[in-house]
Amino acid sequence: MPIAGKIFRLNESIDLKTIAQKLSGYKREHLHPETGEKLLSEIKGLELKENVLKGIFSEDIIITRFYRGEIKAIPITLENTFLFIQEKRFPLLFIVGKKLRANNLANKLNEIIFIEPGVITEAEISHDTLKNLHESNPEATKVIFFDNVDIPNINKLSLYGAALADSSLYLEYLKHGKIWYVVFESKKRELTIGITRNCVITVFNPIEEEKFIKLVLDDIIPLVSL
What we know:
The protein has about 230 residues and is an alpha+beta fold. It has helices at about 15-25, 100-115, 125-135, 165-175, 210-220, and strands at about 5-10, 25-30, 40-50, 50-65, 70-85, 90-95, 120, 140-145, 155-160, 180-185, 190-195, 200-205.
């Protein structure tokens, strides 16, 4: 199955030791308003090594399932790995999880660490960086999406497969929009990788989480605009 994650940036200068202190021992319990189930949120496994603070955000939630004519409420625990990466000015945050889940956890980590909202925000990989990524090895690119399109009634443009070999069509699309999403094959990693301009990363091949994290730290973090 594909694995995904998202990179965020912190808009405040703070060192990783301070972040670790604020997150250490975090644990909250609350009762679900409908089921009365006791639900727990906690941060586990904090580990600070050099310029990376790694941890797990564990959260109980209630899901509903249809079973023999009834809707059953079932408690489950979600666990997502997160990493704070120290950069020159401000740290970056990487959360392993789909976009909506990562966004939700970024807001919760923001609340725990900073209280006031808006310190942890979306990071960006620039249009020019994605353009260079494609043009440096166009044969490896499988999909390109363009947004900010200036053609009336068209929100997005896309190129797939054989259409990517048409350089004139690619250049025409560049005149009318910015690259939003690129899917390419990495020969180095032997993986198919998707990257959006707001730093959602997806690997479409089966891959262990630790290898996915290493890929992001080594290959994707350097692409982020700081």
